[in-house]
């Protein structure tokens, strides 16, 4: 049945997410970061997103992203700047030190991704990504409709 196949897919995706988070934590650790903090640093690179926008982009709760952003700001890795579009919702920007830490992580991640990516063809990875994107789209539509 399709429901059983989807349930198996979902369980595999959840297990994969756990493994990816653990791998991300290992990659970010030499830069003194975690996967979650890495995601916020990467989002801050553009400099044109508020905490709420970063949270939406990452699919995370705004309060959790706010806590991470405040820690990153206290460590001098990001800064809050005025938002011309919204007086209270400051923009999150990467500092020079934040960019350096993010760069360290991204160099490590590139080597890691090259190693794992070599086990698959581009077509296999593109097909897997397409299925995941369709599932996310269906779930987002379901959430938006209150389902």
Q: Keywords, please?
A:
single chain; mainly alpha; 70% helix; 147 residues
List the helices and strands and how they pair.
Layout: H1 2-28, H2 35-44, E1 49-50, H3 51-58, H4 62-74, E2 78-83, E3 86-94, H5 96-117, H6 122-144
Antiparallel strand pairs: 1-3, 2-3
Explain this structure to me?
The protein is 70% helix and 12% strand. With 147 residues, the protein is mainly alpha-helical. Strands 1-3-2 form a three-stranded antiparallel sheet. It starts with a helix and ends with a helix.
Inertia-based shape = globular
- Order of strands across the biggest sheet? 1-3-2
The SS-based structural class is mainly alpha
Runs in which pLDDT lies below 50 for 5 or more consecutive residues are: none
- What would the average pLDDT be, to the nearest integer? 94
In terms of quaternary structure, the protein is single chain
Task: Give the N-to-C terminal Cα separation.
Answer: 22 Å
Q: Roughly what fraction of the amino acids lie in strands?
A: 5-15%
Largest β-sheet summary: 3 strands, antiparallel
Order of helices and strands: HHEHHEEHH
